[in-house]
Amino acid sequence: MVQRCAWVHDDSLEQQYHDTKWCRPKHDDQQLFMWLILEIMQAGLSWVTILHKQMAMQTAFDQFDYRLIAHYDENKIAELMQNAQIIRNRRKLTAMVNNAQVFLRVQQQFGSFDHYLWGLVDNQVQQNSWSTTTQVPAKSPLSERIAIQFKQLGFQFVGPTIIYSYLQAVGVINDHQQNCAFR
Q1: Which positions are catalytic?
Q2: Could you give the angle at the alpha carbon of 77 between the alpha carbons of 39 and 93, nearest 5°?
Q3: How many CB atoms sit inside 10 A of residue 54's CB?
Q4: Inside any domain, residue 68
Q5: Which of 49, 55, 66, 164 could form a disulfide with 100 if both were Cys (CB 3.0 to 4.6 A apart)?
Q6: How many C-beta atoms lie closer than 10 Å to residue 105's C-beta?
Q7: Number of domains comprising the chain
Q8: 3 within domain boundaries
Q9: 119 belongs to a structural domain
Q10: Is 16 contained in some domain?
């Protein structure tokens, strides 16, 4: 039996996410935007819910193309609010549009979002060494600092807990437990 982090259950999508995506460094701007949106959508919900709705959201959100999402208008938001396959939270959907616009500005200013984000950590993965899931914090000084910077740039729905999860999702933070085969 493969040893995984204790938070992983029997759900195959959750196992696949843990084994192949979680805490793996990502540098593609499209992927960095997608994971930001998924983490925002997850606020107040279980991660497994997001994983099960990810494909529907990918379709509904134009493959998470931030260039298209930046131009969503109220009609598009109203259309999305009718889609029972996705997370239908107006605040999250409008934050997604705003964040796509900010994402584009960050790209213009820094050359890429990847360059900006990884520059905040000197292009180094933060390697944590937890023995149990209960040791993993919900936020950290790093996520608090980045959340403040994101908010200053104009991003919405980016508190330190969401940002901590985001940093795990895109591999800036590696929180695989010490006994995890995927560490």
Answers
A1: 17, 39, 47
A2: 15
A3: 17
A4: yes
A5: 66
A6: 12
A7: 1
A8: no
A9: yes
A10: no
The CATH number of the domain holding residue 114 is: 1.10.340.30
3-state helix, strand, coil in the chain (%, to 5): 60, 0, 40
| Predicted structure pTM score | 0.96
Sequence length of the chain is: 183
71-106 confidence digits (pLDDT tens): 999 999 999 999 999 999 999 999 999 999 999 999
**Burial class of 151 by CB neighbour count within 10 A (0 to 12, 13 to 18, 19+):** middle
**Distance (Å, whole) CA 21 – CA 142:** 21
Taking alpha carbons only, the member of 140, 100, 99, 136 closest to residue 120 is 140
Q: Which residues have C-beta within 8 Å of that of residue 63, sequence separation ≥ 6? A: 30
- Gap between the Cα atoms of 175 and 152, Å rounded: 27
